[in-house]
Inverse folding.
């Protein structure tokens, strides 16, 4: 049996504040890898093959996040989260991925809702993380993105589409058999 660490973002400043630096990463003993190439959902190029930095839709933003993680570009990955997301400091974030070798991503149908000049979109998400030692682990949950309406932004700096909240849990099923899930209230 082998192990690896994968940062699992749980959203909310209170949640990050209540966790020790090493607690936001999951340390698990895992069975050997089952193999398979790293590839994203919807026929896009494999996550790590081509640099992808696209904030034009929630799905493309999350794809860009995992493209950065798969390419070990952690500062870029960290930058996709809003200050309100409760993200840890950069060094803690980066350490959480130190033994993540690669990822696969599967996204469900996004659901958006407007509120006070912002659009919040919930995106069901499944990832398969492969450790640097070849071990494999599947996580499922939900990412919530926030777009402050561009027409409402009149002073610098411009705030692009960002990840507002992320909740992922270890899954008990294989990647192909797992679905992401977002609570009906978006919380």
């Amino acid at each position: 049996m082998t192990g690896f660490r994968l940062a699992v973002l749980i959203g909310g400043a209170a949640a990050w504040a209540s966790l020790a630096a090493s607690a936001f990463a999951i340390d698990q003993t895992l069975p050997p890898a089952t193999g398979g190439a790293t590839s994203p959902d919807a026929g896009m190029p494999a996550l790590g093959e081509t640099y992808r930095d696209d904030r034009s839709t929630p799905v493309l933003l999350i794809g860009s996040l995992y493209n950065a993680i798969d390419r070990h570009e952690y500062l870029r990955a960290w930058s996709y989260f809003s200050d309100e997301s409760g993200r840890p400091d950069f060094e803690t974030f980066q350490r959480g991925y130190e033994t993540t070798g690669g990822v696969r991503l599967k996204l469900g149908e996004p659901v958006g809702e407007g509120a006070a000049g912002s659009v919040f979109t919930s995106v069901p998400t499944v990832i398969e993380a492969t450790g640097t030692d070849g071990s494999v682990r599947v996580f499922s949950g939900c990412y919530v993105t926030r777009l402050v309406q561009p027409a409402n932004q009149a002073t610098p700096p411009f705030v692009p589409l960002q990840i507002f909240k992320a909740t992922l849990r270890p899954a008990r099923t294989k990647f192909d058999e797992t679905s992401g899930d977002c609570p009906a209230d978006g919380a």
